[in-house]
Design brief:
This protein is an alpha/beta fold and about 210 residues long. The chain has a single domain (about 5-205), classed as Rossmann fold (3-Layer(aba) Sandwich), CATH 3.40.50.1240. The chain has helices spanning about 30-45, 55-70, 95-100, 100-110, 120-135, 150-160, 170-175, and strands at about 5-10, 50-55, 75, 145-150, 180-190, 195-205. A 6-stranded mixed sheet has the order 3-2-4-1-5-6, with helices on both faces. Helix 5 (about 120-135) packs across helix 6. The radius of gyration is 17 Å and the shape is globular.
């Protein structure tokens, strides 16, 4: 079967305003440090053929800058939003440690069985992330840049590595820092089959 390949670059948003928290769907802007991180990324990123972003402003505002700089159309995909942490969404981690220490510890240990109250189930989150991934692969562009969140990117890395679930130990051990880039090389055939390979994770200026 004929094969073709494409590059999917995934850029995590920059540092956000406010205290450290489970931001999820909370729609806060970048901090001044985060804006500087994105400006640095823009100077080093390779211009893609296609630009897609999460709807949340910590991603979308940066993607708007990229679209203007590169004169590219910008696509917004709701499926690229971060996991919704329910009642804990946007609450400072220090507050959660003080008010819900046992519940928080159980969530860190097993997010599938002990999600935050009112949160999006982890299985639902991973399913929509993988649906968004398949939509990316169905496009004709050979190089796509996606501006999104650590949770989404880690879900895609897990899928590329053949992991069926997102274990807490995997999520904790895998560092995708603010404004860092993850690159996948994807080979696909005309029957719709695809094979993904993780080829880079690090600062935006270091991808091959």
């Amino acid at each position: 079967m004929p094969l073709d390949s494409l590059i999917v670059d995934c850029l995590r948003h920059g540092a956000c305003a406010g205290p450290s928290s489970l931001r999820g769907r909370s729609d806060m802007p970048l901090s001044s440090a985060g804006e500087a991180q994105i400006a640095h990324a823009l100077r080093h990123l390779e211009r893609p053929q296609r630009l897609v972003t999460s709807p949340l402003r910590r991603c979308r505002d940066s993607a708007v800058q990229f679209a203007s700089h590169w004169q590219l159309a910008l696509e917004v995909d709701e499926r690229l939003a971060e996991m919704d942490f329910g009642d804990w969404d946007g609450v400072a981690l220090e507050t959660l440690h003080q008010q819900h220490p046992e519940q928080l510890a159980r969530f860190w240990q097993d997010p599938y069985r002990f999600p935050p109250p009112g949160a999006e189930p982890v299985a639902t989150f991973t399913a929509r992330c993988r649906e968004a991934w398949q939509a990316l692969l169905g496009h004709s562009s050979q190089h796509t840049l996606v501006v999104t969140h650590a949770g989404v990117i880690k879900c895609w890395i897990a899928a590329a590595l053949g992991l069926e679930t997102l274990s807490t130990s995997f999520l904790a051990a895998l560092g995708v820092d603010y404004a860092h880039l993850v690159r996948f090389e994807v080979t696909r055939d005309d029957s719709g089959q695809s094979w993904s390979r993780l080829v880079y994770l690090g600062p935006s200026g270091g991808a091959p």
